[in-house]
TrEMBL record:
Keywords: Hydrolase, Protease, Serine protease. This is Peptidase S1 domain-containing protein. One of its GO terms (cellular component) is extracellular space. InterPro entries: Peptidase_S1_PA, Peptidase_S1_PA_chymotrypsin, Serine_Proteases_S1, Trypsin_dom, TRYPSIN_SER. Transmembrane segments: none annotated. One of its GO terms (molecular function) is serine-type endopeptidase activity. It comes from the Eukaryota. One of its GO terms (biological process) is proteolysis. Residues 1-176 form the Peptidase S1 domain. Pfam families: Trypsin.
């Protein structure tokens, strides 16, 4: 497992009861058979993290009391690299970027959301079925949905997520061994 990724899994003793406010995500291997070429590049991040950006010196625990979600737009890797280059950080192929999908400042993962899911709905036009997959894990970012300018274009700073599908063989092997 590379050291520039964020992965963690829990094994439960039994099934977690479902309710109308939650649903199980599809297995990534199952979801891979769905056609992603016609899907929108929209994803959803959820978490109990801070609702506003904090300075590194501010150690107060200001987590949200309720689960929050934000709609993000997946960003091409080359575009995201323009952001990370200006920050002096490296963007690897194991990472995916996603800034706010609308014109609202602050829609992003924030401090305290690390390890949370980035999910995406995939739709198969042939079967007319959709499936939610977890495509990423909240890793890091600069600010919480702040506006910025890169190469003369106004945009939101993207959140950086670990690409979960790249690690599924390791996840399955580790879960089976333990």
């Amino acid at each position: 497992m590379p050291n520039n990724c964020l992965n963690s899994y829990l094994r439960t003793k039994g099934r977690i009861p479902a309710n109308s406010n939650q649903q199980q995500i599809c297995d990534i291997e199952t979801a891979a058979v769905l056609d992603v070429s016609n899907s929108q590049n929209i994803a959803v991040v959820t978490g109990f993290g801070h609702e506003n950006e904090r300075s590194d010196n501010d150690l107060k625990l200001n987590a949200s009391a309720t689960l929050k979600q934000g709609v993000l737009k997946l960003m091409p890797h080359a575009t995201c690299r323009d952001f990370t280059n200006q920050w002096g950080t490296d963007l690897t192929q194991r990472m995916v970027c996603a800034p706010s999908a609308n014109d609202t400042v602050g829609i992003d993962a924030c401090r305290g959301d690390s390890g949370g899911p980035l999910i995406r709905e995939l739709y198969d036009e042939n079967t007319r079925k959709s499936c939610w997959i977890q495509m990423g894990i909240v890793s890091w970012g600069y600010g919480c949905g702040k506006k910025t300018t890169v190469n003369g274009v106004n945009s939101f700073r993207p959140g950086i997520f670990t690409k979960l599908p790249l690690f599924m063989a390791w996840v399955n092997q580790t879960m089976e061994a333990n």
